Structures are given as C-alpha cells and as structure tokens.
What does this fold into?
Amino acid sequence: MRIDCDVVVVGGGPAGSHTAMAVARFSKQNIRVVLIDRNERSEFGKKTKRGWTCGDAVSKRSLEFVMENLGIRYERPEIEHEVDGVLVISPDHETKVLFDGEGYLLNRKLWPQKQLQYLEKFGVEVLFGVDARQLIAEDNRIVGVKGTSRDGEPVEVRAKVVVDASGSASVLRSNLPIESYVEREIDKENDMEATGRYILEFDRVVEDETWFDPRYCIIHLDQFLAPGGYCWTFPKGESKVNIGLGVQKTALDRRNAAYGLRDNLTSLIDQYVRANRAIVNPREPEGYPDQGNTYSTWQVPVRRQNDCMVANGYVVVGDAAWMPRPIDAGGLGPSLYGSVILGRNVVRAIEENDVSQDGLWGYNVEYVRVYGYQMAGFEVLRRYLQTLPNDDISFGMKHFLSEDDIESIKRREHPRFPLLTNFLRVLLDAELRRRVRERPKLARSLAYVANKSRRLIRHYLNYPERSADFPRWRAQLLRELNEANERLGLT
It folds into this structure.
C-alpha cells in the first residue's frame, strides 16, 4: 500500500497526535495529514505492551495551552483528578517544600480515545496497526517512511514532511539516513532514567499527608529507594494513586554494590509501595478505564532537548526529541508545547514551499525561546543532584533553598540559590555563614550551578536564527557543559 500526503506523523502518543491536530488546524485542513500508529484503534497511543505508561500528571497551564491553541477541550473522564500543586519531601522527611500550581491527573488509556475523536474531526487520516521503521531518503532529503501492517503488508507513505514522534528509542532518528545536525543517539548511561509505576486503589485507614494527600502530587527524594531519581505518589482520586519511581542505572549499580544488594526497578517500586504508610490493602482497580494499564516500566530521557530538531523534510518532537524536563522527567508539558509550535512551523514551511532544514528551522528557534531555553541548566542541576547523598539533599533543602527559589521552580525556572550567590547576604547572616561552613563544598557547588544556569540560559536565548550559525553555537554549548561537568566532578 502506498499513500501520498503532505505530512506524515509517526507515533500516536500525545506529541504525535497533537502535532497532527496542529498541522490540520493551522492549515485550515488544507494540508493532507496522515498519522501512523503501531497500535490498533482500541489501543491507540499505547506506549508499551504493558500499557499507556506515564506518571499521568500535567500542569493546568500546559493543558490549557494546547486546548486554547487547537480549539479542543479535555474534561472527565480523560481528566481523572485535579491537584493544587506538588509537595517535595526531603530524604529525612524533615523538610517539606510546597509548589503551588494547579494540575491534572489524566487517564492515559481514555485520553488517546478523545484525541482520536479530534484527529478525525480535523480530517487527519489514521493508519492503525502499522509499524513504521524506515525513512525514505532522496537527494539528502527525507520524503517518506516505510512500514509493515499487522498482517505483514508493506506500507509506504510519501510526504513533504515526516514528523517523528515515535518515542525516545526512535529507530527513525537513530538511523536518519541524511546529513543533518540532528543527534541520533542519547547517552544511555547518564541521560536516561528507568521508570515504572503502579495504578492502585487502596483503603484510607492511616491519614498521613506526607505519604498521600488527594490535593497534591507528592515527590519523595531518597537516594536509597530511588538512586539518581525520585519516588512519586500522585493522587488519582480520594483512594487511588499513580505510584512509582525512577532510577539512573549507574546510580542503582553503585547503590547495590555499596550495600551488597541486587535490587532492580520493580523490587524498588514494591519496596516504596510497602513503605507508604498511608496506602493500606493496595489493589489493582477494576473496570475498563484501568484494565491493562495497572503496571508498566519505561525509559525516559532526562537531558536537554535535541540540540537540533530538524533536517531536510524531517522533524522530531516529544520523547523522540528528548523533550522531557531533565529535573523531573516530566514529558507531557514540553510535548504539548512542542506539538503546537511544530505544527505552526510545519504549516508555514509547506505554505512557503520550503521544507528544507532552513525552511523548518523556525521550529528550533521558537521552541527554545518559548520552553526549551532552561533545559540545559536543569540538566546540569540534575546531574549534580544525582551525585549527592541523602544527608546533603536534606541539608540543602532545609538551609539553602529560599522562598525565591521555590517561586522560580513553580514557574518552571531554575532555582538561583540567592542565599548562596549573594555575597553580602552571606556576610551579614551569621546563621547562614555557619551553615555554609558546615557544608562548604555543597554551598560552593550549588552557587556554581546557579551561575552556570544563568550562562546557559543566556546562551540558549541566543539560539541561532540561521542554520549556518548552528555549529559555532553548539560548540560553545558543549564547552559550557563540559566545563560544568569537570568543575562538579561529573566526568
């Protein structure tokens, strides 16, 4: 089977679905859009064989951004629960930092079905059960994809632009057959997190708001239970949770070696569930909305987005572009922003009859300036925090995290640690000086990370508007990152 169209989107997850909607909407349905998903209709957007795996949380701001721009509406039952913010708890459980900010817990099995309704309303053609694994290249330009249907029939879709939304392990990106600035592979040892979660119902016998609160997403920092990552308990109702954790493989290996243990991701998640004193008699929910989606594991990229996300006739978005935020692995927000921005730029490129790297370059520039400019700084902070023992994390949260930092994080901005970077403040505050003397290396490193973040943000806000200037810009970026890694002992 062969199909000719203007845009083909590979992957029916949130990034792919909303990009397809965006192209259709911004072109007033004058551009023919085809979306390929490897799943059948009833399992549209399914991430792994075990389900629609995700932490399920998204900020109200991100969801409203995509709804307002695309003229769509999400509500119950795909929105399962509303929260007022995020509560982060230190390893010693003595410090609790509340980040106000409304958000939603989605039902990731039902949400794609609502997306599918909008896709069809916008005239997007959806090919179900097709596994697209090869790009078609002609004259150093991507012109389509090849795949196979469930019954083994070859499928070829030719297009002016191929949108790769096929996930972090994208074989399309890894095997991109043309010259481009797009990075093919991620550093799997340092920049990927192994994550997993249960969706559980339970009996509310013990009331302990540091372990479960239906108003807040709770994050527990604990380098023993989640080495190189964190644990989460996200409410999906008054007695229902998405509960799980993420780990960095090298950090888990070091932890196991240090304690003579053989834990893996699943055993750690089970330990975390047992440790949660508020969850009594945990059990899988009954009924269609959660059937086949109660436990799964997956890999999440936790670095800055791909430094270049476009090539001749080809673009990446979502996890395929490594968009999840490095500091918390949250992927839905950046994917929704990226989808709208990409859709707008793809339409512009097609209308201007230039789908080359240069014609699509505006997607790079706009995404960086709207959302991605902070991610390299978060990457440095994340890599540094992964090296800290629990007592340093607890100490830093208690004594070095200011109200200004909390406000910055609430705005999805990098904490500036003004308590440590303001020399006069340290000089005049005797108690702060004493705390700095107790942990001088920690204080110096946090101050350095804050200053490095400001440098990286300035660099990203000067992202080149022309592709010809990209090599010089990226060389400076890598110098900044390498200097940070050496200074913080991360190499």
Observations:
- Residues 440-460 form the longest helix (21 residues).
- DSSP finds 16 helices and 19 strands in the chain.
- The chain has three domains: 2-77+103-187+302-370, 192-300, 375-487.
- The two ends are 49 Å apart (CA to CA).
